């Protein structure tokens, strides 16, 4: 059989595995891992292997724009022209009456870089508002804040190839065995081939990742800072620090030492709920390592002290001089496939293109000049949760939601529901109607999905890849970038007369010129012809940059990396009490992705864990007379969910876990884990805390 062959990148997690897609003469697709791809070398996980089924299943796809005149009316099919004319009229009217900050965009780490670029140009350059934020705020912003302060910029210093060069790993608040499976397989193989490699896992739950751990530090939720400070204290005590590196390439050790001087290992062990000897052992593994890599994800980031947790972990790399050399460095694992690409274009309320900072007047001037506009707004934009609070309070009137399902994924679902009810106008742009949020749309815009459009993404190790268009989108669905530039044209804005996504990409690349993420040597053509590149790629023949800070020149003003002094204090999140004595953590399961709008369509993936569950410790279950499979109600003042219990000794007593994927549309009884989460945010990164909500669990009794 004859096939056309295309290369692309998996559109689920931030690992960024390469895939080869074959299309036969009837348009049927086959998919396999790309053996030549440096990330996955032909491997794919269960989600990646089933991606093409999702593309071919059109059962719940949005095919035409739909609009309604008033909330109580059903939506009717309309033309693209009518849909975008209405969107433009609403935005113009709101801005005229209430000012530019009355509108905003909430987008996604699933968006391609070109789409991210356009929505930022549109909002910040032309609508005059910084109200553009992303669901990457929910997964990455604490790491971004900590990298920026420590290294001078949001720059992941290392590369996947460093995994095979390291001999000690600290995996903190992450379960890569389920959430970054191909990266985990590389790690597992490395450990199999090199038994001397040490792996320390820090997690209140004993997850699948612990299967390769030499040491599992099962800390109590929220105690990470005291643990990493205690490890640092031990490294100082034993002299296992890189004195030369610290002296030449860092600042802030004095204050950090003072902080550590007040840290007692015994007290730290008590706070964390672990043994002193285990802290010493972790320090010994790290201190003895030739190459030390820390890896982390949501367990650190999704916290009211997420930035401090990141600081405390990053300090360990500075203390041991394990950065800017092969097999070493702090490696934050991005959750989404293009969380990093979004940040490159400034896809957050606090950022501008090429890692420029919104609050910096010079940066605003550079971008304004580039876009040919007088100024960029200086008022900070609303971040994810704040945007929905502003809708609820009536300060913001209209929101445009692209490729994400905030009603299921943002904390405190009831408030998000209220916000969407209160909003004067809600636009939802997505591939599917299988989302709780879509029900609130006044205007529903059908978008093209993976393989139905082209563009680029950047994975966790700064690797940029080109994604080919393989099939036409169904019905009248359009690529997100085209929807945005057509809207901008309707608004009468100059500079949006693109013919295709490659023109948008070229513009973005030009705007990175002479910055630390300079990719002016890239184009769609080069990526198609030569494969993937890690930024920076500052000129045409540049091969890309696998490792940053090799010259130990950090991006801070002084060129030196900064020690920070994260102080641990108790009760910085939602305290438990008699009524709500358990700490709820939410998270992901192996075969589902986000709110299941895609993975939920694949039987093979659903069969792994077919329904939501509550993981609860044996003693907590016994106390409540709960047995495996019993129905329980998890509740607090914000809401409740009804769910079967899974009794486990893998979770600490006092802590329970719910998967975050199911929404009301998929499981009305369970409703949403985020009915219970509290919505408090880290004051620096503005990232919400999904790992510490106080709840009660009771046996379900029929009313
Ligand atoms: Fe896709 Fe991530 Fe699985 Fe790779 S590890 S196939 S990127 S979901």
TrEMBL record:
GO terms for cellular component: membrane. It comes from the Bacteria. Its cofactor is Mo-bis(molybdopterin guanine dinucleotide); [4Fe-4S] cluster; FAD. Residues 3-59 form the 4Fe-4S Mo/W bis-MGD-type domain. Keywords: 4Fe-4S, FAD, Flavoprotein, Iron, Iron-sulfur, Metal-binding, Molybdenum, Nitrate assimilation, Oxidoreductase. GO terms for molecular function: 4 iron, 4 sulfur cluster binding; metal ion binding; molybdopterin cofactor binding; oxidoreductase activity. One of its GO terms (biological process) is cellular respiration. Belongs to the prokaryotic molybdopterin-containing oxidoreductase family. NasA/NapA/NarB subfamily. This is NAD(P)H-nitrite reductase.
């Amino acid at each position: 059989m004859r096939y056309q062959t295309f290369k692309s990148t998996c559109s689920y997690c931030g690992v960024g595995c390469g895939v080869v897609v074959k299309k036969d003469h009837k348009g049927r697709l086959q998919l396999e891992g790309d053996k030549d791809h440096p990330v996955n070398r032909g491997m794919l996980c269960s989600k990646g292997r089933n991606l093409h089924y999702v593309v071919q299943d059109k059962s719940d796809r949005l095919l035409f724009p739909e609009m309604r005149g008033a909330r109580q009316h059903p939506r009717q099919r309309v033309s693209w022209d009518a849909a975008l004319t209405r969107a433009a009229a609403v935005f113009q009217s709101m801005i005229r009456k209430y000012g530019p900050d009355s509108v905003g965009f909430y987008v996604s780490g699933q968006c391609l870089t070109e789409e991210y670029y356009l929505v930022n140009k549109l909002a910040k350059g032309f609508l005059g508002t910084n109200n553009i934020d992303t669901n990457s705020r929910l997964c990455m912003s604490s790491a971004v804040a900590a990298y920026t302060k420590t290294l001078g910029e949001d720059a992941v210093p290392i590369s996947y190839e460093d995994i095979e060069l390291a001999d000690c790993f600290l995996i903190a608040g992450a379960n890569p065995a389920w959430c970054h499976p191909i990266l985990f397989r590389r790690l597992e193989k490395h450990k199999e081939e090199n038994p001397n490699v040490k792996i320390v896992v820090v997690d209140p739950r004993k997850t699948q990742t612990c299967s390769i751990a030499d040491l599992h530090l099962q800390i109590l939720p929220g105690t990470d800072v005291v643990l990493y400070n205690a490890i640092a204290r031990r490294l100082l005590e034993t002299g296992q620090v890189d004195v030369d590196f610290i002296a030449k390439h860092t600042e802030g050790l004095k204050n950090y030492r003072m902080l550590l001087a007040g840290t007692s290992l015994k007290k730290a062990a008590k706070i964390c709920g672990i043994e002193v000897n285990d802290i010493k052992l972790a320090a010994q593994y790290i201190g003895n390592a030739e190459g030390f890599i820390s890896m982390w994800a949501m367990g650190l980031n999704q916290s009211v002290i997420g930035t401090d947790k990141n600081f405390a972990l990053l300090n360990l790399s500075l203390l041991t001089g394990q950065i800017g050399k092969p097999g070493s460095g702090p490696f934050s694992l991005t959750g989404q496939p293009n969380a990093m690409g979004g940040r490159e274009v400034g896809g957050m309320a606090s950022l501008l293109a090429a890692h420029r900072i919104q609050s910096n007047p010079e940066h605003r001037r550079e971008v304004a000049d580039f876009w040919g506009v007088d100024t960029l707004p200086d008022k900070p934009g609303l971040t994810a949760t704040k945007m929905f609070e502003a809708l609820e309070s009536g300060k913001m009137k209209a929101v445009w939601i692209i490729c994400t399902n905030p009603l299921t994924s943002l904390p405190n679902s009831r408030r998000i529901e209220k916000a969407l009810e209160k909003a004067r106008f809600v636009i939802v742009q997505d591939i599917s109607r299988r989302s709780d949020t879509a029900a609130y749309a006044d205007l529903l815009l059908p978008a093209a999905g993976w393989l139905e459009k082209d563009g680029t993404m950047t994975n966790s190790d700064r690797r940029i890849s080109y994604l080919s268009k393989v099939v036409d989108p169904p019905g009248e669905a359009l690529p997100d970038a085209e929807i945005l530039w057509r809207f901008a044209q309707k608004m009468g804005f100059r500079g949006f007369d693109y013919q295709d996504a490659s023109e948008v990409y070229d513009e973005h690349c030009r705007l990175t010129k002479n910055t630390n993420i300079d990719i002016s040597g890239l184009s769609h053509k080069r990526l198609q012809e030569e494969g993937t590149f890690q930024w920076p790629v500052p000129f045409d023949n540049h091969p890309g940059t696998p490792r940053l800070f090799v010259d130990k020149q950090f991006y801070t003003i002084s060129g030196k990396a900064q020690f920070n002094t994260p102080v641990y204090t108790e009760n910085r999140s939602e305290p438990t009490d008699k009524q709500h004595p358990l700490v709820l953590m939410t998270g992901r399961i192996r075969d589902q992705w986000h709110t299941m709008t895609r993975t939920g369509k694949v039987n093979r993936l659903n069969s792994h864990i077919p329904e939501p569950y509550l993981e609860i410790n044996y003693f907590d279950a016994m106390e409540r007379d709960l047995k495996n499979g019993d129905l329980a109600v998890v509740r607090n003042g914000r809401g409740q969910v009804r769910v079967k219990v899974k009794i486990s000794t893998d979770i600490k007593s006092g802590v329970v876990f719910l998967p975050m994927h199911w929404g009301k549309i998929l499981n009305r009884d369970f409703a949403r884990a985020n009915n219970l989460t509290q919505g408090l945010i880290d004051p620096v990164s503005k990232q919400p805390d999904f790992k510490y909500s106080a709840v009660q669990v009771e046996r379900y009794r029929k009313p």
